[in-house]
Design brief:
2 domains
């Protein structure tokens, strides 16, 4: 009888010890995120939010901001028929798995060549992604993040429609099957729109450099910096949640151990 009465206490003590080890590990992980990953990322974010502003016609080799209006050499339209200097469009296909659903991009197109930036009568080529640079387009998702190795694109609101424009159907012929689970999304910047660019420049062109390599924004980089901040804060948020969970489980086990002892 004594052994049976003692077993729940021993089991609770073992569980408590395990949760204590988990709490110590969670605290160590949180310390790593705060002391190394978080501190480095937040320092970089501070630097990005205090970049100098430059003017077209100048040359600079470290990241800076330049403001102007966006243009293109020849008129172009988005698949939905809007005048555009730069656009991206993609077709999404929705799938269901049990009670959950997920989307897959079945076709993506865009036009981002021959861009020009104008400022006070000066003109420069915009070559943020003229080479092998990868781009990341903000889509307005909650807690959206941006990696620091991509050219960030902030086009404002991303349009969505169940009807796929005929020009997009032609561009994506053979890559999708018509159905009610399809939707079309489009992001663009019209010609002459005021934009903020992050990058380096020669006398003739603004190009990518550094980390991040560049950015193009309709909203003065605020959403871009917010996405960079989310990328820096997410490890800290995860560490805080892990510490909270571990400490909660430890407190619960200690309460059970106390009640068993009494």
């Amino acid at each position: 009888m004594k052994k049976r009465a003692l077993w729940p206490v021993v089991r609770t003590a073992a569980v408590t010890g395990f949760y204590a080890l988990c709490a110590v590990g969670a605290l160590g992980f949180a310390d790593h995120c705060l002391g190394k990953v978080g501190a480095t990322a937040l320092r970089r974010l501070y630097e990005l939010s205090h970049l100098p502003e430059r003017h077209l016609g100048e040359s600079w080799t470290s990241p800076a901001l330049v403001r102007g209006t966006l243009h293109t050499g020849a008129p172009r339209q988005t698949p939905s028929g809007s005048a555009s200097a730069i656009w991206y469009g993609w077709i999404e296909e929705e799938h269901k798995s049990g009670k959950n659903s997920y989307t897959v991009i079945v076709c993506a197109k865009g036009e981002d060549e021959e861009l020009e930036l104008r400022q006070d009568g000066r003109l420069a080529r915009l070559e943020l992604f003229a080479g092998s640079e990868h781009v990341a387009l903000l889509k307005g998702l909650p807690l959206e993040t941006l990696p620091l190795d991509r050219v960030a694109l902030d086009f404002g609101e991303v349009g969505r429609s169940r009807a796929i424009p005929l020009p997009m159907q032609r561009l994506c012929e053979g890559k999708f099957r018509p159905g009610s689970n399809l939707s079309y999304r489009e992001a663009s910047i019209p010609p002459g729109e005021a934009v903020t660019v992050l990058g380096c420049a020669s006398a003739e062109a603004v190009h990518s450099c550094g980390s991040p390599p560049g950015a193009l924004s309709r909203r003065q980089l605020r959403p871009v910096l917010r996405a960079y901040a989310n990328a820096a804060l997410n490890p800290i948020r995860g560490a805080a949640a892990l510490v909270g969970l571990a400490l909660g489980l430890l407190a619960s086990a200690l309460l059970k151990l106390r009640s068993g002892a009494s």
